Each structure stands twice: as C-alpha cells, then as structure tokens.
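Human: I'm a chemist; would you kindly supply sequence and structure tokens for a protein?

Assistant:
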Amino acid sequence: MFDANFIERLFVRSIDHMMTSEWQWPPEWDYDRRKAFLKHCIEYAEQREMYEQCAVIRDVEKELTNEETGNVQSSDA
C-alpha cells in the first residue's frame, strides 16, 4: 500500500505544477471532465487542509469557466 505522505506530496506537486506555463489539460478532456477533476481535487485538498492548493485549484477553475464562457482575461491587467 502507498504511503499517505507520498500521495499527498504527489498531489501538492501536481497542483503546484498547474501554476506553471508548462501545464496543460489532457487534450481529450472536455469541459465536464475538467470541472469534475477540479471538484474532486478541491474536495481532497479541503479535507487535508491544503489551503494553498485550494487557491490554485480555484484559480484554474476560474480560468476554465472564463474560457468556456468566452470571458478570457489577460493576466497583464
């Protein structure tokens, strides 16, 4: 069985990677799958009190919603 600390470290690193310009969604994931993934991630992070990762997930969720609705905002503003 996996060590819980290993899973948590992997989760944190994965979520933190979302802040980089190198990170991308898998191309075959549609909007609904992306939203579901983020929902599960936020639940996991909240249960473990990973508040920095919650903030990252919420930012990604906002970007995804803006892209879907066509309200893409520049990060330069």
